[in-house]
Amino acid sequence: MNSRATRPRVVVVVVRTFVATMMIMMMTTTTTTTTTTRRSSAHAYRFALVGGLSFGYDLALVGGILRAMRDALGMSAGARGAVVAAVKVGAIVGAFVGAGSMRSAGRRWAAVTTTAACSLVGGGTTWAFARWTSVGGIAFGRMVLGVGIGALAVIAPAYCGECSEASVRGAVGASYELSVCAGMVLANAMTWWKPEKTYGLLLLSPGVVGFWSSMAFAMTRESPRWLVRRGMEDEARAALREAGADEQAVEEEIGEIMAEERAMGAGGEDDVSFMRAFRDAVVDGAREAFDGDEKRAVRLALALAVFNQMCASTSVINYSSSVLRNVARATSGTTDESMDVYNLYTSLLIVCKTGGVVASISMVDRVGRRPLLFIGSIASGLSLGVVCFGYAVYSVALTLLGMCAFMLAFASSFASIYWIVVSEIFSMRAKRSAIAFVTATLFASGALSDLIFPSLLASMGAVTFAFYACVCFAAAAFVHAYVPETARKPLADVQAMLKRGLPPTVEYRPMDDERHVELAEL
Hints:
Layout: H1 3-27, H2 36-73, H3 77-105, H4 107-131, H5 135-163, H6 169-189, H7 195-218, H8 224-229, H9 233-242, H10 247-263, H11 274-291, H12 295-310, H13 315-318, H14 320-332, H15 341-363, H16 369-392, H17 396-425, H18 428-460, H19 463-482, H20 491-499, E1 506-510, E2 517-521
Helix pairs in contact: 1-7, 2-3, 2-5, 2-6, 2-7, 3-4, 3-5, 3-11, 3-18, 4-5, 4-7, 5-6, 6-15, 6-17, 9-10, 11-12, 11-18, 12-17, 12-18, 12-19, 14-15, 14-17, 15-17, 16-17, 16-19
């Protein structure tokens, strides 16, 4: 390859990556507000924004360069599915890595180390094997990247749930998904112009983004709740002072944390090694799901995780350019463009996803979790029905319209609300053992969906989208039958309701210190 021709492309990739990393660093300079609780929540917002951006960037990058990789490496439909799914296969392991590392080292340093190590090693590996034209090597590198993604998916929600005020807990959780959208936008923008010329360097870029993300995590404070749980009250006070709280507010917050921990049965955090914590996350998570005190909550979260991913939520974004290119090829016979217009169409989907997340942020604490999940699932299924019809009649406009409607509906419901519900239905004791197991199930379902999507599309055509629409309708039926409302309720009451197996249409109300209950039909 001509070195002079290569140099401008390298400069373009470097500039784009620099802009992406500067946006990450700008997120870390969020100004604090005047109230103590908002200062405390500011760190949760910052953690959510940085973690989500790195997550979304790594997750979405491959979709825009899939065609270039197919042409350069001669990849079959099955191989393309394997490369896309590899990141979620790695994330299955990463969920347990995140649980183990944040228990042994704390939330902040767990995020720093896993993000830096996995992004640098994974990005470098995928770039190296792209130069050696090894599909298996690229898939392995993406699995390493996936370990970091899975770890962040456990660490970031845990940190945000522990460091955000109850009144903004839903908004903080939804902001994590909003930042995932921002990462997807950045990844997609880097594939608009001639991705076939720079796909190797683009595979390296997650290492740069991950490095700056780890630096941003290092500038946050440790979770005071984790420090209290470890018996490190003085360090917890220092963390609250770092957030701008005065001495009176510090003591009040420490007292509230200790009281909530006792009420929720969190217990203390042992000073254990990473390997011990990793093993406990695997074994205890499975035990909690089958025979634990909170098995109903765990099973509810497991089912929601499967529905979240098996409705093709990420597959639609990752394969959207391929889907639209297939429709265009069937009608015009050519898809050659100086700019990859189909990657631009993917950016439109991400914009719709972003709009849906913004809508969920404004509604999640006001409307509630349950109505948004139910209505969003129905709307997602109907939208995939439009995609099915558009693909069957070879209409790019109708297929794109259906995809946009699907992303808007899904993002305003399952995309962000799933993480919020999961952070609310477990006690601290169960969360430590179950959250990794649930998150691993989420990524396993996503890996399966991404793996089979190209083969289904090649063999079944438009019927593929009808299959995923049925999954959405099944999700709506499940939400109606089993998912309770958790908005504006104390976490202890939500968890007690699930322990008792109360129907979702019944409200749990503590009446006195002995925790008698009154059942009131909503």
